[in-house]
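Lab notebook, bench 4. Continuing the backlog of folding jobs that were queued last week. Each job is logged with the same field layout so the records can be merged later without manual cleanup. Today's entry covers Class II aldolase/adducin family protein, a 259-residue chain. Filled in by technician R.K.

JOB TYPE: sequence-to-structure
TARGET: Class II aldolase/adducin family protein
LENGTH: 259
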Amino acid sequence: MSTFSRTPTRVERPEQCSEEEWALRCQLAECYHLVDYMGWTETIFNHISARLPGPAHHYLVNPFGLNYTEVTPLNLLKVDLEGHKLEPSPYDGNPAGFALHAAVHAAREDVQCIIHTHTTPISAVVQKRGGFDHNSFYGAQLYGRVGYHTFEGITLFDDEKSRMVASLGDKHILVLRNHGVAVAESSIAKAFFLLWTVQRAAEIQCAAGALGGEDVPLGADVQQKCADLTAMLIRDSGFAVKFFDAMVRKMHAQRGPGW
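JOB STATUS: finished
OUTPUT FIELD FOLLOWS
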């Protein structure tokens, strides 16, 4: 959990909401705002989920129809693996998100947070047969962490769940070919940092591909070394938490005290 816990000043924790869930709601709302701040939104579409503690695999997700800037700790939906709301809300969820998020949350006990985006650079890379290369500073950090899933249309149907889980395997990045990506990590901060790395890798790959000349390839040993070192930093040093907290502070400083 982030060390920087910003609870909205005018909103109190509801009595029926545990402190642990409220902290998760506050951090997830901040994650939505950060994704908007970074320019990675797709209007009201796409989704970020955070699994709640406990054996039931319940998770929080955005109300469909709201901009990411309108997501708050209070209006986040609590749903089960079938997408049914567990608490009253005037909002519904996005049906296109339930199959993906429910499938991964049910299958991967190590995953707390899943972020799905399809920014222009990411969508361009995943449309290419080769997918992500690992020859840039950021691309190398993704080495061995990417699973690929063949596009089957909008993810609405239960029968695709097992195939998406199989495509992800034990990895943390699911490329939805011809579509976008979903990153899955053990915390919100780690998922956000991983998405940032994926986004940077895609941006650089697109820019390099537009230039003339031959790329300098990296050996598999160097790619693996980069991926292993990044994993160690995130696991052992709190690197992702520091990054997330710094980005939240930057966002609030630029957007003003109302955020």
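OBSERVATION: The chain has a mean pLDDT of 92.
SIGNED: R.K.
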